[in-house]
Design a protein that fits this description.
Strands 7, 8, 9, 10, 11, 12, 13, 14 and 15 form a 9-stranded mixed sheet that branches. Strands 1-2-3-4-5-6 form a 6-stranded mixed sheet, covered by helices on one side. The chain has 4 helices and 15 strands. A hairpin with a 5-residue loop joins strand 10 and strand 11.
């Protein structure tokens, strides 16, 4: 069972035993306050993301919504905006579909503010059919090794483009890659799931241009975040635009 990429949106659909689960990651509700502190006024994006998810749930006929981490932005602590908007966000969706939540590295302290109807999983993730889901900042549970695919967020993957005039811009992308020997040895399995790294759902949350070189890593390409994605066959990773266009292997971009 392979997850279905939703064309034009950073979302996956998993069809398991007749149930349809919509998967998204990295909503970063509350990031607008960080922009405000830097002198930029951006209206809350929560209503826009709710509307986008409503449209996706309707178009895909999903009966389950799974958020794999970083629904909030502030670390450490919780902002007033997050305390107001995150419970409202969850209350909106539990009236429509089943809702699952896998905490990410930004989600500390949220448990007491999430409606009881939301299924909260461990940060080490869980399986739906043959697909394992987690945020990606921690090692997955042992059961991940029995899956066909492992889906993560956390990295906000992007690819930088440059035109002949030197103008540069970045676009969100999907990354698909094989895991290396270090992970196989850790889980004592010769065959491990293929990793799928999702673009972030919040359009204002920024990202990491995987093909950009910089002084951070001594001129090397940008490093990955998280134990699984740090142990992929990087140059052979396949990169796809959100509209489905295959860009090629990362080592050639």
């Amino acid at each position: 069972m392979e997850p279905e990429f939703v064309t034009g949106e950073p979302a996956l659909l998993i069809n398991s035993n007749g149930n349809r689960a919509l998967i998204v990651s990295d909503l970063h509700i509350g990031i607008e306050y960080e922009y405000y502190l830097r002198g930029m006024r951006i209206p809350s994006q929560t209503k826009s993301m709710v509307n986008r998810l409503d449209t996706l749930i309707e178009s895909t006929k999903a009966d389950r919504l799974v958020i794999i981490g970083d629904i909030k932005h502030r670390v450490p602590g919780i902002s007033k905006q997050e305390l107001r908007e995150i419970p409202e966000f969850f209350r909106h969706f539990v009236q429509k579909v089943k809702v699952d939540f896998v905490p990410g590295n930004h989600d500390g302290g949220l448990k007491d503010y999430i409606p009881k109807a939301v299924k909260i999983h461990k940060s080490s993730g869980f399986k739906i059919g043959d697909i394992f889901l987690l945020h990606g900042h921690s090692w997955p549970a042992e059961s991940f090794a029995k899956a066909m695919f492992v889906v993560t967020g956390h990295n906000h993957p992007q690819i930088e483009f440059r035109n002949k005039l030197g103008y540069r811009w970045s676009e969100p992308v999907w990354l698909r890659a094989k895991l290396n020997k270090k992970v196989r040895d850790r889980y004592k399995k010769d065959q491990l799931p293929e990793l799928i790294n999702m673009p972030c759902f919040n359009k204002f949350a920024g990202g990491m241009a995987l093909n950009k070189k910089g002084s951070v890593n001594g001129g090397e390409r940008r490093g990955f975040l998280g134990p699984l994605i740090k142990n992929i066959k990087r140059n052979k990773a396949r990169i796809y635009m959100v509209d489905g266009v295959f860009l090629g292997e990362l080592g050639k971009l």
